[in-house]
Amino acid sequence: MEIEEAIKRAKANDQKAFNFLLDTYWDAVYGFQLKRIQNENDAEDITIQTFSRAFDRIETFDDKYKFKTWLITISKNIHIDLMRKEKHSISQIISNDDKSVYQILDESPSPEDELITEQHLAKLLRDIKKLKPHYQEVINLRYFQELSYKEISFQLKEPMNNVKVKLLRAKKLLAEIIQKN
Predict the structure, then answer these.
(1) Is 44 part of a structural domain of the chain?
(2) In a domain, 117, yes or no
(3) The pTM is what?
């Protein structure tokens, strides 16, 4: 899939296009933040927030600019906002209206979902324990406790779009661990 096509499909709420864009640009945005703040957890949190905000507002993206530049700008603005608030916890960022979050919801299983489902439960649990704790938690809430995104959002006290991006990232990382084994 080409970037331009993925953006066009994402604007039409195609979940695979969102996955493609996340996979393509995760390292660039995360690397940018890691160099800026030199803290892996905070860089990861800001990157998750960047993608959730970008996906929430994908229809505002102007094709005259590069998508990567747009993402980096969003990421930089989130970091600046955090510094202005002088709060120690990134989880306290207030989300925008949750109605538009439903635009990226697609309940059909992704390739990562299918791979995860095929694994033996005991082995799967061992692989899940290799993830960072916040990824373990979101996987547990979604797949073992079978909570909706809204319920997970409420329980974690995080905006729903952050939960969605965090779950996307957790599934991708878990699928990579499973494939290595």
Answers:
(1) yes
(2) yes
(3) 0.59
pLDDT tens, residue order, the chain (181 aa): 698 999 999 999 888 999 899 999 999 999 999 999 888 888 998 999 999 999 989 999 988 889 999 999 999 999 888 887 754 433 333 444 444 444 444 556 666 666 666 656 667 778 889 999 999 999 989 888 888 888 999 999 988 888 888 888 898 888 888 888 7
Q: For the chain, give the DSSP string.
A: --HHHHHHHHHTT-HHHHHHHHHHHHHHHHHHHHHHH--HHHHHHHHHHHHHHHHHTGGG--TTS-HHHHHHHHHHHHHHHHHHHT-S-GGGPPP--GGGGGGG---SPPHHHHHHHHS-HHHHHHHHTTS-HHHHHHHIIIIIS---HHHHHHHHTS-HHHHHHHHHHHHHHHHHHHHH-
Query: Residue 137's domain is classified under what CATH number?
Result: 1.10.10.10
For residue 168, the enclosing domain spans 108-180
Q: Does some domain include residue 103?
A: no
